[in-house]
Amino acid sequence: MLGYLLARAGVDVVILEKHADFFRDFRGDTIHPSTLEVMDELGLLDGLLKIPHSEIRTLSGNFGGTTVTIGDFSHVPGRCKFVAFMPQWDFLNYLAAEGKRFPGFTLRMETEAVDLLRENGAVRGVVARTHDGQETIRAKLVVAADGRHSTLREKAGLRVVEIGAPIDALWMRLSKKAGDPSQSFGTAVPGGIFVTIDRLTYYQCAFVIRKGGYAELQAGGLAAFRQKIAAMVPHLADRVDELRGWDDVRLLEVRVDRLERWSMPGLLCIGDAAHAMSPVGGVGINLAVQDAVAAANRLTASLASGTPKPSDLEAVQRRREFPTKVTQGIQVFIQDRFLNRVLQARGPISLPWPLRALALVPALRRIPARIIGVGVRPEHVAKQAVPPLQV
Ligand SMILES: Cc1cc2nc3c(=O)[nH]c(=O)nc-3n(C[C@H](O)[C@H](O)[C@H](O)COP(=O)(O)OP(=O)(O)OC[C@H]3O[C@@H](n4cnc5c(N)ncnc54)[C@H](O)[C@@H]3O)c2cc1C
Q1: pTM, 2 dp
Q2: Which atom of ligand 1 is least distant from the CA of 272?
Q3: Which of 71, 10, 82 is nearest to 45 (CA)?
Q4: Are residues 318 and 242 in the same domain?
């Protein structure tokens, strides 16, 4: 997203992606109203919504046998009053295709940043590994947007504040059949949480476990694991055999952390590289997009005329740190107070009081919808930083 915004503003950008494509299952699928609003501001929304997706207007879950509507997006500000569920590779491919319209936009696949190039105490580029060997790419500014296992933030030696998460997620696919619910849904029972994300032709599923609990689950055998899923989500019972081995189940380590300082001269970290997000609320992608918009708004002018000063980079952190801390605080509260309790429970679980309140007073459902859908301090594309599209 930042690559797109900068290239549209006339800045030369080289985006490095270590994989050959964006096609992976573990990225999360949600595009929230705040991101859809950014896409609208950029004139890219109508094109985006032509890509197959589903639109979620309310968020529901089943907690210990009671189904509760948790969020109602019909009142969020902005054009789209829904969360779009779209595989993230479709979203990224769309942005990349749109970016290629600008002469300054270069996307280099299978090019992995392995180190920082430093000169006189400042970052001046990266060392990248390609098919043809190592290469040095010089830049006025390096932006580390390389996710929660960021190589670049590690090479920079930036201090990480570990917040931790008591959960991990097992990621798997199960087929979708005619008559199945076309809805993404969460089910919580004592000892387990199962989330199905509707990907139109199949379900992307997450089985949330307590941190470090995978080995124990595997020791119980695949048949027992399949049975657990079938008991939690009965309409999937006829296809749990599609999980033929543990190779069909991928462990995704959940991390919550953030950098003390997001930048150093010549380097800025954004997205999960600056603050790894928990999957709770499915807000990480949207926060990363908001970081990108804030960075573009702040940096296009200095990039066009020279090299951004350390104070410009620090300003991006100042702008985005508060929303990050608040969002991570809410995620950690939910992880520790609700998810962990469900995972540790051995007997029946009762509906927590916030869910009881949401069940009783429908108007309250606007609050979680606002927090999830729009979040704290939503960013808007500044017209003076990123010009309108020429048609
Ligand atoms: C199990 C799980 C489920 C989640 N579900 C959701 C969800 O539904 N919705 C949501 O909003 N958030 C979700 N999140 C959080 C979300 O995945 C992240 O917050 C979000 O992807 C961060 O975006 P990013 O661009 O910063 O990093 P990433 O999405 O991790 O992207 C980093 C990119 O950089 C590439 N890369 C990495 N290292 C290098 C390198 N050295 N050189 C070149 N390229 C490199 C990677 O291949 C990748 O393409 C989930 C997280 C987890 C763990």
Answers
A1: 0.94
A2: 26
A3: 82
A4: no
